[in-house]
Amino acid sequence: MKELHSFSWYAKHVKKHLPKDAFKPVPARLFGGLAYLLITVTSFLLIGLLNFHPLINLLFSVVIGCSFAGMGFLGHEILHGTVVRKPWLRDTLGAIAFFPLTTGPKLWRKWHNMEHHVHTQHEENDPDAWPTLEKISKMKAFRWVYRLPFSVRAFFSFASLTVQFTAHSMKMFTMYIKEFKPKTQPKVWLQIALPWATWISLIFVMGLEKWIFAFLIPLLIANFIVMAYISTNHRLNPLVPVNDPLANSLTVTVPKWVDVIHFNFSYHTEHHLFPGMSPKYYPLVKKHIKEMWPERYHEMPMGKALKALWNTPRVYFENYELVDPNHGTMYGSLGYGLDPDNVKSKTVSTTPKNTKAQE
User: Fold this and answer.
1) Strand-pair partners of 329
2) What does the alpha-carbon distance between residue 19 and residue 26 come to, in Å, rounded to a whole number?
3) CB atoms within 10 A of CB 341
4) Exposure class string for 11-39: b at 16+ Cβ within 10 A, else e
């Protein structure tokens, strides 16, 4: 096993090469969010007030969905404190940015900032980590799912990206609501109930058909865009006992214009080293990481990462392998034998803690 280091260990070595401005908030990022907000409101009004052909409304749906996703990426940035630092302003702006994705700022900061970032790819403590074979063997529903052919599971797994962010947000709400102080819980409830109440009430204002084009289809599109990134952030990486961002995270590459409209969300390893730094400076962080630890750093084009996800199962076996319980086939993870250009499997005995590969 490779020696693992904490994110603070890496950050200490990289920080001395970065300008002081890299650690200051960048309020100018809000102009991008304002553009998305204006596009969304304008598109809503056009759909609601005029009677376009369904194909025209579908084009508006795509525009709104892309705007929802862009606002979500900015909301993620805002709630890390890299845009503004005042807590009340940070949470207010974060609530607006995440409003389309129906996720409240207090829940997000608890689930994402305090749990996922602190325990990234930890088998037990990361709420976003995918399960181990030992865990799913105890879940009847999952055992049934994994009897389906691999290609069928891959198809439905990708189709589910259209709802995964919303569904996982609801799961995180039920998981963490009791961990908030009693006086804070009503705010957390309000932050999840208000967006849903707003969006559902629009059915009665716009009518069901227009609402589908204005909100439902855009929500599915936004979920897919956001989850296309999130699913590649860690799901090809191993589970690790030490929060080592170069082992547990993947940076994907996209065209530069996509990085602009998605606020550099593709730089995920860099984000886990410096979550409190504006993504504006992540290209510089990436440069230094690649100079210092080129053999540890994981990056690949988004398309290749998604293809690798399609070709590998999402169940971990002894942390460093991905296993298909249906056929007893095992795949490596990044840094542990997975070649995204040539994904190969081997047949194994899937008895936990007693693995014997069979050539």
Assistant:
1) 324, 347
2) 14
3) 8
4) beebbeebeeebeebbeebbebbeebbeb
As a whole number of angstroms, the distance between CA 234 and CA 319 comes to: 13
Q: Does the pLDDT at position 359 exceed 70?
A: no
Tokens 């990022």 belong to 29
Question: From residue 95, how far is each of 25, 37, 88, 91, 282 by CA, in Å?
Answer: 18, 13, 10, 6, 24
pTM comes to: 0.93
Cα distance between residue 130 and residue 238, in whole Å: 10
pLDDT per residue as tens digits for the range 58-87: 999 999 999 999 999 999 999 999 999 999
Is the C-alpha dihedral spanning 215, 93, 72, 189 positive or negative? negative
Go through 276-315 and write b for each residue having 16 or more CB atoms within 10 A of its CB, e for each that does not.
ebbbbbbebbbebbeeeeeebbbbbebeebbebbebbbbb
Using a 10 angstrom Cβ sphere, with 0-12 exposed, 13-18 middle and 19 or more buried, the burial of residue 175 is: middle
Instruction: Name, in order, each residue with C-beta under 8 angstroms of 169's C-beta and a sequence gap of 6 or more.
Output: 101, 102, 103, 107, 192
pLDDT in tens, 4-36: 999 999 999 999 999 999 999 999 999 999 999
Q: Using the structure block, give the residue that is written with the tokens 């886990």.
A: 272
Residue 349 clears pLDDT 60, i.e. is over it = no
User: What tokens were used for 6?
Assistant: 């904490």
Please list the residues that pair with 253 across neighbouring strands: 301
